[in-house]
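Input set for joint prediction.
Command: fold jointly, output tokens.
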Amino acid sequence: MAAQTLFEKIWESHVVRAEPDGTTLLYIDRQLVHEVTSPQAFEGLKLSGRRPRRPGATLAVPDHNVPTTDRTLGIADPLSAKQIQTLEENCRDFGIMLFGMNDIRQGVVHIIGPEQGFTLPGTTIVCGDSHTSTHGAFGALAFGIGTSEVEHVLATQCLVQKRPKTMEIRVDGELSNLCSAKDVILAIIGKIGAAGGTGYVIEYTGSAIRALSMEGRMTLCNMSIEGGARAGMVAPDEKTIAYIKGRPLAPKGELFEQAVQAWQQLKTDADATYDMTVTMRAEGIAPQVSWGTSPGMVTGIDQRVPDPRTITDENQRESTARALEYMGLIPNMPITDIKIDTVFIGSCTNSRIEDLRLAANLAKGKSVARGVRAMVVPGSGLVKQQAEQEGLDRLFKEAGFEWREAGCSMCLAMNADVLQPGERCASTSNRNFEGRQGAGGRTHLVSPAMAVAAAVEGHFVDIRTWK
Amino acid sequence: MQAFTTMTGLVAPLDRVNVDTDQIIPKQFLKTIKRTGLREGLFYDWRRQKDGSQDPAFFLNQPRFQGATILLTRDNFGCGSSREHAPWALLDQGFRCVIASSFADIFYSNCFQNGILPVVLKADEVLATMEDVLTTPGYQLTVDLGNQAVTTPDGTRFRFEMDPFRKDCLYRGLDAIGLTLQQEATITAYETKRKAEAPWLFRDFRP
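tokens >
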């Protein structure tokens, strides 16, 4: 048999039918559903009198609209409340597993899938959410879809797809002290651009990737979409298997052993080829800070804000100037001179227990700078519970951080956690688009470690030398 | 879904790169449980000045682009969030076709689900047309899906590529789910075979 990449192995095992022109009916093993992109899909099923083909292959959770403050008070915004209520009704009507707002297992959809063992290697996973790429960290083919496709998968357990191209991004070497998966993916996007991965599925390889924890690999794959790739993946290994073992929704006993045997085959063959390969050295990656309004507008902490006048490409010059105007930044100013008002630690990119452990230990014995508001939003109720058992909440609170309930929160500000116009935020989330965290708000994407240091100092600092 | 065959329409220019779906329709409009009525949210923040009033300079607020049915824009249009509210809002505003030098993958797919034709033209063709649209009042284009061509008022024809299956579905306005359901027996056969190979994938999580 011809040598195959990891992606090709997963793709081929899910082909239900392939047309001569390459149009493929692809089987979808699992679907995740949240309240924002599903109501119209369920409505479509109802209007056409269709039923889900395998309701038992779906897991639903409200996350975008949920308050991160005391939930016994309910949801103040009637539209948010209605959307969550609609999800609950649809799950009841169609027999779909739901972790409700007051369930300890509730959390950001891309946090809870892996946490519960719902996310497994070698599977196809979709969700009406572009950050579904997160699940690729387990060696799954996971990608975001629109609401019409959510309905399509509910009704048929399949999607019509054309096979994407493959891109290898190889990162070898060792990361510097306190540089993380977040810095790696931001540096990658800075290199390939916000559309560099369009039409591709990325496989991340190399010693620096293998050295990442599962949490780190999830952070990495999560932001594949910010580089334009619908999916990113890392081949499963012993870390992957150890992470999955014993999780509530994961296979158990003999079935688990059988699955592990299959998962061990899930790697790119030695002589397989990719359509494109990008290589980087881990040592060359400094802590990253985005300065603009697209995730590709990012640089190292030891650099300066770009100067549009020195950019020769007209399009790039215009978009850089526009971004700097929106962000209220002066060309050539050192990144370390950028002062911040707000810090957000959370989102499907960086709100797992490992992120919170690192952040809490850096915050220990320090204080949030005067005038800075800093909040920590755990990725799930279970992450929150574990963090509290470890005393992390105390470290955060003593340092002046707010400690919240789980949800998407200020990553996209659909709930009450919103930036005010002109407010500048160091955020561990994934998008720095105009108005993403609130109309007129200014977002700088950073790692959790960089966010803590910025909270304490009131401006960005190089975490590698921060005391 | 409404079929798309050929259309001639007024062109509106959005001369920017990397337009993300957060700009096309901001978060506060995603709280709906319907597909319709989203026009109000289309480019909501860009339509407004800092004091909240309508910005007369933004293309959608200019009288000359009222009634436009074709949106002309640049690289990587529709990047970011997968929200299908973006094409729903464009459709609600009256756009049936978006022409760009490139699209983000998820937005591109979402267009086909809603009877909107996304057309990829070469960067120089887009730039030249953008110039013409900005300088020529009432500028119209003819978009012909059958022949995969865009024709300018002076008769210049730009060819575009299109996946044959997607083209056929859009051209005939087919129900995508209905088409897949015709493969019922093939799907069942796949499931039977797969269940034997990988039984752990078939755990039933229903409450």
